[in-house]
From TrEMBL:
Pfam families for this protein: Sulfotransfer_1, WSC
PROSITE patterns assigned: WSC
GO function terms (MF aspect): sulfotransferase activity
Record's protein name: WSCD1 protein
Length: 577
């Protein structure tokens, strides 16, 4: 008995010593970490903040003059994730091209799930009224502060361009962005949202209700909850160009009753595109319509849906004639003013009973499809991952937990059995693998809106990328066909070519009812923030014959699998080259 007691006493003494040692080591590690963080803050503070930070704006394609919409590329790739082929059992695929590291798909994907960056995702609490005295209403741009106004997201007064920067928004950024597009007023709300327009809001609010600090500038007011801090934009500094982006939409048959269809009009001798666009922009309409010496402003509607465009020569021939056997034709241009009939979005008020996935291979246009769905339904879409860049551009569902069921659908690139069976139904978005691979490779090396360099394409990374990702493109579709419970197959090319019919199918699948005007508004805002910047190589062919042979085998396999499940096969342009 004494021997056993002695052993117990010895063990307890050792335990006390061990606990003491671990506590001391923990305190030392904490002290070192604190010192390191303090040093980092001091170093960052000594560098200062650039005074002329550029604002990431939604309209990356703004230039002087007129842009043909055929030159605009609508889709943007989704974030890259590593997915393996281990669950695929299709014998037609050539697995010698699938590297072993892809089998670790699920563990790597889990590492890419939501990362809650507190400095990024935590909502800024409204500032106390006592602190408003320290707020600044003057910035480097020297714009005149007009006051605090009520902001209604559904019936916006500032109906021009809209920008989001949920991390770096400042008063100067918003003023510069609006001034470069020749707007008269710049308004800020929620500390991170910027609105441009030419008409001062009518409903003023109490000054203390604009109490949200700018996300990128401490001590400055950027509106509040449903409140706008409005500035009158001064003339641009010398050397800074205004970017009035006017997009040519096409030649269309004019409606029978022009005055009933278009709310504003102007008759001007020697009318030019610039005159009409400027007139409609100041009236805050997204469309400028030219018929001879007549200028009309309005929206796409059921009477004027902007479908079935005609040859431009028909507009030129009928401009100076009052009537023709086939009616009048008019030239249509998109002004910088945003169509706001479909820009209001929110989370679902009650949890969705059906858990819907928006699934695609990376580079297949998932982000663009989310843009369309959000504007068509008025509800945010969620994401299986957290992409700060997308959240920063207004995809607020990125911040919401993917299983909250507060979003209309959830973006995912998952293709494992367990991950697929978590969803009740899914919209499966498929894109030509040649285009998808190039889009994802561009995203990997140049981000969402850039192009990979020649050096990237000519490196050994490109062949390895094709060998690995081509098989993933096939396995992603095959596994969703195998394990998906209820699927709607949407081909990216069909959505791009026939936007409204395909979007109607998607909205009906999501069990949401929308109006025709809202769909036309979506079509009017179809491009969103999805134009890559930089020079794009013409007639660029990065695929070798060996790569084509590999991809073509996967195309035939997927086409056969789709037809086997009574879906339509892949579009013709997927057919092996």
């Amino acid at each position: 008995m004494a021997k056993a007691f002695f052993r117990l006493q010895k063990f307890l003494r050792r335990t006390q010593f061990l606990l003491f040692f671990l506590t001391a080591a923990y305190l030392m590690a904490g002290s070192l970490l604190l010192l390191q963080r303090t040093r980092l803050v001091i170093q960052q503070g000594s560098r200062g903040t650039p005074a002329n930070q550029a604002l990431p704006v939604l309209d990356e394609m703004t230039k002087i003059g007129i842009v043909d919409p055929r030159t605009l590329q609508s889709s943007r790739p989704a974030p890259r994730l590593l997915v393996g082929m281990d669950a695929l059992q299709e014998p037609a695929l050539d697995w010698q091209h699938s590297p072993h590291w892809l089998t670790s798909r699920n563990s790597e994907l889990r590492q890419l799930r939501r990362r809650w960056f507190h400095h990024f995702t935590s909502d800024q609490e409204p500032l106390q009224t006592a602190g408003l005295k320290a707020m600044k209403h003057t910035t480097e741009h020297k714009g005149t502060y007009m006051g605090c106004f009520i902001h209604d997201s559904r019936e916006r007064t500032l109906k021009g361009a809209v920008f989001y920067d949920l991390r770096k928004m400042t008063v100067a950024h918003c003023q510069d962005a609006c001034a470069e597009r020749a707007y008269s007023y710049a308004g800020l709300a929620y500390g991170a949202e910027c609105y441009c327009g030419n008409t001062l809001p009518a409903a003023a609010s109490k000054p203390e209700e604009c109490n949200s600090e700018c996300k990128g500038e401490k001590g400055s007011v950027c509106g509040g909850v449903n409140r706008l801090s409005v500035y009158r934009v001064e003339e641009l500094r010398a050397g800074v160009k205004r970017r009035r982006n006017v997009i040519y939409r096409g030649c269309f048959r004019a409606p029978e009753n022009l005055t009933d269809t278009f709310p504003a009009s102007l008759i001007q001798p020697n009318l030019t595109v610039e005159m009409c666009s400027e007139f409609c922009s100041k009236k805050e309409f997204p469309l400028a319509v030219i018929l001879g010496q007549e200028c009309y402003c309005g929206y796409p509607t059921g009477r004027f849906p902007l479908r079935d465009s005609a040859d431009r020569q028909r507009c030129s021939w009928s401009c100076n004639t009052s009537n023709t056997a086939e009616g009048k034709y008019c030239l249509v241009y998109q002004t910088p003013v945003q169509d706001t009939r479909c820009t209001d979005r929110k989370f679902l008020s009650t949890k969705s009973k059906v858990f819907v996935a928006l699934s695609s291979f990376p580079g297949a246009g998932n982000t663009w499809a989310r843009h369309l769905i959000e504007h068509a339904t008025g509800y945010y879409t969620g994401s299986y991952y957290f992409d700060g860049a997308l959240y920063n551009k207004g995809f607020k569902g990125e911040k919401d937990h993917w299983r909250s069921r507060r979003t209309i659908c959830v973006k995912t690139h998952e293709s494992g059995k367990t991950e697929i069976e978590m969803f009740d139904s899914a919209i499966l978005l498929i894109r030509n693998p040649y285009k998808s691979l190039m889009a994802e490779f561009n995203r990997k090396y140049a981000g969402h809106l850039g192009y990979a360099t020649d050096r990237n394409w000519k490196s050994k990374e490109w062949p390895d990328f094709v060998n690995s990702y081509a098989s993933w493109w096939a396995s992603h579709v095959l596994e969703w066909l195998k394990y998906g419970k209820r699927l709607l197959i949407v081909h990216y090319e069909d959505l791009k070519q026939s936007l409204i019919p395909k979007l109607k199918e998607m909205v009906e699948f999501l069990n949401v009812t929308v109006t025709e005007d809202r769909l036309l508004c979506v079509e009017n805002n179809r491009d969103g923030n999805f134009k890559r910047s930089g020079a794009k190589q013409k007639n660029f062919e990065p695929f070798t014959q060996e790569m084509k042979d590999l991809i073509n085998r996967y195309i035939l396999t997927v086409d056969e699998a789709l037809r086997g499940r009574n879906f339509s096969g892949l579009p013709r342009e997927y057919v092996p080259r």
